[in-house]
Specification:
71% of the residues lie in helices and 0% in strands. It contains 34 helices and no strands. The N terminus and C terminus are likely disordered.
């Protein structure tokens, strides 16, 4: 039997020597600490079942590796498994290497543990090197071993190699395929966005001898729901039941989450009833998904009702449920109720988490209760929580909105001082805050700093500054920034174009706005509803009705609707004495869709 050709090259032993050195340095430290006991002849025993940490495991391994004869291989396997359970994967690999070097017996189970450790530490290449030992011994790796390697490849996002290895396993019959093997591949394909391929493999299972089980169907259903292909997920759910495969709570939860994300509440109710009929009882995940979706849709009273039902069903709401409802209260401006909910968490001994505090900060900022937001932020460390980038970014946005530029800039400096690295979202908040507070020159300094430091640049940064310049009526500088984008390795997107077109229209530069519109098409940037509305409104305001009508017709043909500004302008023109043919043309296009326009005309 040959090792798969896709297997990476063998590892270099130097890596293991380095790791072994670290481990056995630790062992020497433990030996020193226990020297008194050893010298007095006292016998130290740390039983396998009593391993509480890495130091226990290392000390036990030292004793076992020095024993003559060596303990049974099963004991070493238990020790290695304990190290893996401690998530000390590199240590497990080094112990395995040391075992091989000193002649401690190993078996196929030992090799499997070593391969699993390699894959869990994102070193699947080492796993393939260990795999070669199977073939040298004349042993055949089983499906679990190959499934572990496949999972490792998917974990490292080596999707093509994983698919090639699976094809080779099937083609050369390297092991007997089972549901675990298929499940591993389907799971990897789903998580990497290859849903169509995952479904193809599911169909292969359905026609073969190894049939998909509930877990496999659930993986695909969950993936379809996350891709917002809920109808396909429901169809597969029905097929699953027709094939005699019983859905479980995880299957139902995947569908509930999918339906909630699309606000298909009637189907959520039907599915909930079906669950109860099938004696599959909703759990905290089911209720959390419904409460979260309702809260985000502003249906907070309904979310509160679900919360109460949950309590009556003896399903204890967790911090996620409380956070979702608290966020919903803030969205509706119900600050007192949000505060009471947080207090109730504490009284129920449900510990708020970092997200709870971020919700509070965000809620207060949206209500312009900036002092309260700052108080929560400063209280976090006293409660045992370190503010993260979301905490800082949310408060930064609130401070800028509250015209507290000086405090916002100090907070940004603090963010970097505590070792956090601003991301693109944070920089957008900073640039937007500066521009909206008429500190465009300071925004330019931020851009200069980013450019000189070689940081990743984003078109959004420059779009924000262009917007600030347009609002300051500095069109010359706005054009210069726009034209300079390619030199920075960036291309204007639809947002950038829209900002500059709007700036031109507001300043009466309609010909330039039309030129920009033409440039969009040349640069393969598709105009959207915002683009058309800006340019139609600009032309209407300046009395350029023929141009307005031309763009209006295009907008309508592409399925875009007029916004409030365009609609208002047309209504105003309906009431004027001068009935321009181009205006009447636009009214006729709009009239069938808006009865109020017909009424205004009459």
């Amino acid at each position: 039997m040959k090792i798969p050709s896709s297997s990476p090259k063998r590892y270099k032993s130097g890596k293991f020597h380095f790791l072994s050195h670290k481990i056995f340095s630790a062992i020497r430290c433990l030996r020193t600490e226990s020297a008194a006991n050893c010298n007095s002849g006292g016998k130290i025993e740390i039983h396998l079942r009593n391993i509480n940490g890495l130091s226990d495991a290392l000390f036990l391994y030292e004793n076992m590796s020095k024993a003559k004869p060596f303990p049974n291989v099963k004991q070493f396997n238990k020790l290695l498994s304990s190290v893996v359970n401690l998530k000390e994967y590199s240590t497990a690999i080094s112990i395995f290497k040391h075992m091989c070097n000193v002649g401690i017996p190993t078996n196929e189970y030992t090799l499997g543990i070593a391969i699993n450790s390699c894959c869990l530490s994102d070193r699947v290449n080492l796993g393939f090197a260990v795999l070669s030992t199977f073939f040298k011994r004349g042993s055949a790796p089983n499906a679990i071993t190959f499934a572990t390697l496949l999972k490792g490849l998917f974990r490292e996002n080596r999707i093509g190699e994983a698919q090639e290895l699976f094809r080779k396993i099937v083609r050369e019959e390297l092991c007997e395929l089972n549901v675990v093997m298929y499940g591993t591949v389907i799971d990897g394909l789903c998580k990497s966005g290859n849903t169509a391929v995952a479904i193809e493999l599911l169909r292969v299972m359905e026609t073969g001898s190894c049939k998909p089980n509930t877990h496999v169907y659930t993986m695909v259903i969950d993936c379809l729901c996350k891709d917002r292909m809920v109808d396909s997920a429901l169809k597969l759910f029905d097929e699953m039941s027709e094939r005699g495969v019983t859905p479980n709570i995880v299957t139902y939860n995947a569908l509930v989450c999918g339906l909630c994300s699309l606000n298909r509440w009637e189907q959520v109710k039907m599915l909930y009833k079906e669950m109860l009929d099938c004696k599959v009882y909703p759990n905290v995940i089911t209720f959390s998904a419904i409460i979260d979706a309702l809260s985000k849709q502003g249906l907070v009273d309904e979310a509160e009702n679900v919360f109460d039902i949950m309590v009556r069903k003896n399903v204890a709401p967790n911090v996620i449920c409380h956070n979702a409802l608290m966020d919903g209260f803030f969205l509706q401006g119900r600050v007192d109720e949000a505060r009471k909910l947080l207090e109730s968490m504490v009284s129920k001994k449900i510990s708020p988490n970092l997200h709870s505090f971020n919700i509070l900060i965000n809620g207060y900022c949206k209500k312009m209760m900036i002092d309260d937001a700052v108080d929560v932020f400063r209280e976090m460390p006293r409660k045992g929580f370190v503010p993260n980038l979301i905490s800082y970014s949310t408060l930064l946005h609130g401070l800028f909105r509250g015209d507290r530029c000086s405090s916002a800039l100090k907070l940004f400096d603090e963010l970097r001082a505590v070792g956090l690295k601003p991301d693109s979202h944070t920089y957008c908040i900073l640039l937007d805050g500066l521009c909206k507070n008429k500190l465009v020159e300071q925004a330019f300094l931020v851009l200069d700093e980013l450019e000189h430091k070689g940081e990743d640049l984003h078109t959004a940064y420059y779009s924000i500054v262009i917007d600030g310049l347009c609002k300051a009526k500095d069109l010359d500088k706005a054009r210069a920034v726009f034209n300079d984008l390619p030199s920075k390795g960036l291309e204007p997107d639809v947002v950038t174009y829209n900002i500059l077109i709007k700036g031109c229209c507001l300043n009466g530069l309609l010909e330039e706005a039309k030129e920009l519109f033409s440039m969009m098409e040349q640069d393969s940037v598709l105009p959207n509803a915002v683009t058309y509305n800006f340019i139609v409104h600009g032309n209407l305001k300046r009395g350029k009705y023929d141009d307005a009508a031309r763009f209006f017709e295009e907008m309508d043909a592409k399925g875009f609707s007029p916004d409030a500004c365009v609609f208002s302008s047309l209504l105003h023109l309906v009431g004027t004495r001068e009935q321009n043919p181009a205006v009447l043309k636009m009214i006729r296009i709009l009239a069938p869709k808006n009865s109020c326009v017909n009424h205004a005309k009459r």
